[in-house]
Write a structure and sequence with these properties.
The structure is a homotetramer of 239-residue chains. Chain A has 239 residues and is mostly helical. The first copy, chain A, contains 11 helices and no strands. Chains A and B meet through helix 7, helix 8, helix 10 and helix 11 of A and helix 7, helix 8, helix 10 and helix 11 of B. The first copy, chain A, binds a DNA duplex (21 and 21 nucleotides) through helix 4.
DNA sequence: GATGAATGAGGGTTCATTCAT
DNA sequence: AATGAATGAACCCTCATTCAT
């Protein structure tokens, strides 16, 4: 049994496709054009052209430009958010032994035996790079700029705006902090808050230095951001 | 009683100097309209109307919409940056007396044993509130959204974009950190970096929670942001 | 009774074909306005008004003012060129019988000894009057002025500019010359060149004296031009 | 005693010059801009800029754009007409010796003893080239196109339009014809008319083939035009 | 549901012209 | 007499949106 869309699209002479395919084509085109041009500059004509669809079809599906915009942003937001999800199982970098040795190298500041601060720190650095990469992805950046640009005029963009600090990554980091704290490696009273702060720090510095994704971040720049952030948190939370 | 125009012009014999007054009126109107509407939506007609000036006068002064935009953003950027400047004398003028502390302006009486962590922490909190206030000021927020929205299309906005993390406040904080470090109160290896991080943290969380200045931050929200940030830095740097 | 639009469209089922009727209305209006006002002075608004069509419809059909202009000139050029075509059958169909003489169409009975100079001369005079009439036709004149005015800025007008010397009439005259030469009446070594010259002479003097069609040519003026030209050619080529 | 203009312009600090110099600068600029752009396209701003004069000065001198246009065309017309004046004394090319050999080369067609057709013909060819050169001069061509373009809307251009067939050259040729006729070399009943015709022929063919001065005439093209015209007149008038 | 044609409003820009200096 | 600033009216073009098919 053929799906409705294949059934309809099978006819070669008919240029008109069925609904869902066209709808998606329009959405994709809208995302592309809105991200590139912004809300005002983007014209429904252009979107229809890119979608290879008549302009009226756009209106049939979405009613008006604003609703099309909201739908496009919403779709793209989900897409980008999916990119924030850490690869499954990537969580604990290598947390097996944990039953660490209380006697640390220098003995003084860091009581941590073998799971020393370096380990935690480099974990943070690595995590930081992942945050920056996700953050500065071209589409994600364009979406962020677009949302920030329009959120004042389109309140329905608020959820999208709130996703600027990627929840999934924050949760991932919080889990890691809890994990290490449970091992006695860290003394972090509020892992959620700490994770939010770490991500916020990276986000702000990354966006700031990359001009909100408008210019690429040189390798050393990203390194510095991550390392300084890691240093701060190591200082603050290492037991 | 002097007319406004004569009041503004320096030349004594000339009753009304046409240029500077109108130019400023246009700039003010442009700022208002661009901040409210964004670059595309703002029409030169509207700006001319608001400035009470003919449209062509706008063109005589600024050539085209883009240059008017750049000029308006630049002016507003300076204005906002001036708002970032800590009230003169708010910084400890000499590194000896703790009484000149910038934290004084929070109004609390503070019996304060002058070099404990509480002191540092509440200093940070107070400073944080000032950062948030400057940051979330309505015009500053609108300007930031505008700049972020357009920086991809107007490279000349990059300096304005870079000012998202207010340099003056960062320097102010760095000075405070150095001050306290000199007193032996803190162990902060890189005060500049630390100051940048503190401000970045506040900025990002403030912008995030206020939807880039689009909704007001409830008092407790701001408190939490500031206190958590202060806690982090106290943990990290208090000796 | 069929509506005008159904009458024009080939498709039988469709009640009104929107395009061709409007397109032609726009073209007609464009011709009228451009001829009257010139390229610059003519406004697309005016053309749309005259065509009883929205301005955007004009742009939908022709893209921009320049292309509309080219299309209008091209159409009118064809129309005018059609007016240059001598009435079919006016030319001697076969080169034997003198009765088929093109000079017949001046209406005179002409007892005409069929091969004397008078005959040739008055033929030329009559032909000259036809050239002048076609040349000084109001629309043809306005078109010529328009093309001359703009050919420097619109190279695509060159074909239209080249048609200033009407090819069809030249060919017609060349045929007549050959005809008479074949009868031994004339000694004309290069009939094509001679025809070109005759027409050029009439054109230049007609345009010159009528100020390029800007003022009407008095009857005697036209007579003089034609007669003098005829005299010259009779002198040059009569055997 | 210094003239008024030198007196005024002597002051180095004062940028403003006196009247006549500025007037001429404006006129020159107007000619340049009108010829290049046409009446409508030319803007008073541009003319003022080219003339290095304030726009209001233009209005002070000429009242409005139309009057400035007329004045500019009139000046340029005179300038061009001066270029038509044959170099003084250039008239009889060299008609004296010629006391040639009565026996011509081919002997048959041309009975002409010493003042033979070749002489007359080549005179005409040379004269034709001079007409074409004057005609197709760049400024003369641009002026002609401008005048033709605007004569319908500016009746005061009629004199300028009438000069399309350069009177001076016609008179020059008429004199030459009379001269040769007086010598018995030619049989030309109406030398003025004949001269007008010859010039008209050249003018029309030259303008036509050069697209009214819009493209250069190749050497052979000009040669053909002149030679064919000369041939025609030799045929017609040689005794 | 899909289309091509049509619309009215408005946007940026430029122009000829005039005031005030 | 000469200027710089100012004006209001257009002009070309594009937009979001709707009809008629």
């Amino acid at each position: 049994m053929r799906t409705e869309s294949t059934a309809r699209r099978g006819a070669p002479g008919r240029p008109a496709g069925p609904q869902p395919a066209k709808r998606q084509a329009i959405l994709d085109a809208a995302v592309a054009v809105f991200l590139r041009e912004g809300y005002q500059r983007a014209s429904v004509d252009t979107i229809a052209d890119v979608a290879q669809v008549s302009k009226q079809t756009v209106y049939n599906h979405f009613g008006d430009k604003e609703r099309l915009f909201i739908a496009a942003v919403d779709g793209e937001r989900r897409r980008v958010a999916a990119g924030f999800t850490p690869s499954p199982g990537a969580l604990p970098p290598a947390p097996r032994t944990a039953a660490g040795d209380p006697a640390d190298d220098d003995g003084t500041t860091r009581p941590a035996p073998d799971r020393d601060g370096t380990d935690f720190g480099s974990s943070l650095v690595a995590f930081g790079h992942r945050v920056l990469a996700a953050l500065l992805d071209e589409r994600a950046s364009a979406l962020r700029r677009l949302v920030i640009a329009e959120v004042a005029r389109h309140p329905s963009l608020r959820p999208a705006c709130a996703e600027g600090e990627p929840r999934q990554l924050v949760e991932h980091l919080a889990a890691m902090l809890r994990h290490r704290a449970a091992r006695g490696e860290l003394d972090v009273p509020d892992p959620d808050s700490a994770a939010r702060q770490f991500v916020a720090l990276l986000v702000q510095q990354g966006l700031h230095q990359s001009m909100y994704g408008t210019r690429a971040l040189a390798g050393p720049e990203a390194d510095t951001i991550c390392e300084e952030a890691a240093d701060l948190f190591v200082r603050a939370y290492r037991r």
